[in-house]
Amino acid sequence: MIVAALFTLAFTLSSCGGGAKQAETETTDISKEETFKSVTKYPIPTAFEVIKMLDKAGASYIISLNNPTENVDKYFTEKSKALNLGVYGADLSYASTYQMKQETMNYLNVSKKLIDDLKISTAFNKEFAQRIEDNIDNKDELIKIITDSFYDTYESLLNEGKDNVSLLVMTGSWIEGLFITTQITVTSENSSDFMTIVANQKDPLNKLFELMQPFAEDEVISEMMETLKPLKTIFDQVEGEAVTQEQFEAIEKEITKVRTEIVG
Asked: Is the sign of the CA dihedral 15, 166, 94, 207 positive or negative?
């Protein structure tokens, strides 16, 4: 739990000292996202980062791409709950980035349910929900609040020794982000920018495998690695930011298969 210890140490040091230290803290506007990444070296792009790239590239919001919220009652195992917490987290990123108010609240609610089911200690409470409602029309602040909640969740998992659960949540989020990207690419008239985003998912996938490898003896993690291997084989053929039409079609087919298995 070295990562968790470093994270805790960083915040402990920043909260101690007073005087000049406090003044320095006040004048140095370092976001939780920057601190988290610098301390934990968060290994892959968050769902928000992927969705922001889609938004910048001119993608529209397609509600049918999201995992229906009613599916939340279908997830009974720790594996399915953790993976779909990641999936719903990506859907939440998607909805809030495009300022879909009702969808944002809906995905917050199902995320809260899975967080409670997994017994993750986070700041998801009435006060948090109220902050979301109060800032529902403020896109930048809304994204900041939700992004911070993601990091809080990840930090809690690390601190509680639930490394395998954190890997599943991260994997579910990555899968949903790639799924949304491929589906938008399929329906887009000018898909070159989206194809680049797809190609750029090679490194995050490799990072996921690196993170999973130390836990390969864990049955659930081992199963997840096997599930992702065909996708990794395809991405291994991708060079740079270029993905061929044949490679894209293979990626789209495989990620749809994997995602369908996860969301049910």
From this structure: positive
CB–CB of 48/147 below 8 Å?
yes
Q: Is 239 helix (H, G, I), strand (E, B) or coil?
A: strand
Domain boundaries, the chain: 1-30, 41-263
Please count the CA atoms within 13 angstroms of the CA of 124 that sit on its side-chain side.
26
User: 221-256: per-residue pLDDT in tens?
Assistant: 999 999 999 999 999 999 988 899 999 999 999 999
Whether the CA torsion 97, 100, 103, 109 is positive or negative: it is positive
Of 174 and 30, the structure prediction assigns the larger pLDDT to: 174
Helix (H, G, I), strand (E, B) or coil at 206: helix
Amino acid identity at 32: K
β-sheet bridge partners, residue 242: 239
Structure tokens at 246: 């044949």
Phi, psi (degrees; rounded to nearest 5) at 242: -110, 130
